[in-house]
Design goal:
This protein is of the alpha/beta class. It folds into two domains: 192 residues, Rossmann fold; 101 residues, UDP-galactose 4-epimerase, domain 1, CATH 3.90.25. It is built from eleven helices and 16 strands. The strands form five sheets. It has a six-stranded parallel beta sheet, with helices on both faces. The protein has a three-stranded parallel beta sheet with strand order 6-9-13. Strands 10-12-14 form a three-stranded mixed beta sheet. The longest helix is centred in the first third of the chain and has 22 residues. The two termini are 35 Å apart. 48% of the residues are buried. The structure holds 2-amino-3-ketobutyric acid (AKB).
């Protein structure tokens, strides 16, 4: 990785990944882009270029002019937002990725493509979900992510494009807000605990899902992109997880620090149905064995750090 392009750079992962890569590789070597019509401001990573990954001409121009060798393609609609507009979600998530893969093929770039627990479906084994298993997602988000996994495989096998990626669980972080996912509740709960001491949760108390703290999510992306190609059997769509938890368990952990915090449950049937179609926890032994994946944060260390960092942010 010498010259990097990031799409979706103002998103939850994009803003922090941009900062990390700029610190590591130099500001001038990390071109961070956000969608042409986005009015999102990244809390940390500036400046940005404008790019719609569905526009192959503009994508080619940036990759060619800037001599890009690696693309972190993060631009995507998340699961709940995608259900509001499935056609747009397919266009952004699937057609955008095809463009990125095509340009990577033409200019010999490596790609990081984040898939998700959303690429699994109701027929998937829920516990210790294997790397290779029944997927058959029933959301447009999941369908676009699963298609993306297969397209990455195809571009590697057919054209040798180094297309790598992980299946992210819900990501918990305090810099940029998540935008339109099913696992967003886990971030909202921290803000509510610190600001209102009360939170209305849209998932049922016992809904178990995989989660990960942002530093581990960034570490996964960078480590996988730096891994020795010869050691990678799957190459993309690696299950990675750090902890699995329910709203009830997260609330109980937060209450250890803020005893007066209360959670009520006001279920959103759309997001509940999405969550119910996802695994309880994934098995991530392929990532551990092939490229040394190892998360750092547990539920208790994540909650402690989140509360400290977010409190500081909210005070400033
Ligand atoms: C979402 O909830 O849509 C995302 C994801 C798990 O991919 N956070």
């Amino acid at each position: 990785m010498k010259k990097i392009l990031i799409t979706g750079a103002a998103g939850q992962i994009g803003s922090e990944l941009t900062e990390l890569l700029r610190n590591k590789y130099g500001n001038e070597n990390v071109i961070a882009t956000i969608h042409n019509q986005s009015n999102k401001e990244s809390p940390i990573a500036k400046p940005f270029g404008r790019l719609d990954s569905r526009d192959q001409g503009s994508l080619k121009e940036i990759v060619n002019n800037e001599k890009i060798d690696t693309v972190f393609h993060l631009a995507s609609l998340l699961s709940a937002k995608a259900e509001e507009n499935p056609q747009l979600a397919w266009d952004v998530n699937a057609n955008g990725l095809v463009n990125v893969l095509e340009v990577a093929r033409m200019y010999n770039c490596a790609i990081f493509f984040p898939s998700s627990i959303g690429a699994f479906g109701p027929g998937t084994p829920r516990d210790n979900t294997p790397q290779i298993t029944i997927q058959r997602p029933n959301t447009i988000y999941g369908i676009s992510k699963l298609s993306g996994e297969l397209l990455c495989d195809y571009y590697y096998n057919r054209y040798g494009v180094e297309a790598r990626g992980v299946r992210y669980p819900g990501i918990i972080s305090y810099q940029a807000m998540p935008g339109g996912g099913t696992t967003d509740y886990a971030v909202h709960m921290f803000y509510a605990a610190l600001q209102d001491r009360q939170y209305d949760c849209y998932l049922k108390p016992a809904t178990m899902l995989d989660m990960m703290y942002m530093p581990d999510a960034l570490h996964a992306a960078v480590t996988l992109m730096q891994a020795d190609s010869k050691k990678l059997q799957y190459r993309n769509a690696y299950n990675v997880t750090a902890m699995n938890l329910t709203p009830q368990e997260l609330a109980a952990e937060i209450k250890k620090h803020i005893p007066e915090f209360e959670v009520n449950y006001k279920i959103d049937p759309v997001r509940q149905a999405i969550a119910d179609s996802w695994p309880n926890y994934m098995g991530d032994s392929a990532a551990r064995n092939e490229w040394g994946w190892q998360p750092t944060y547990t539920l208790s260390t994540m909650v402690e750090d989140m509360l400290q960092q977010l409190a500081k942010k909210l005070e400033s």
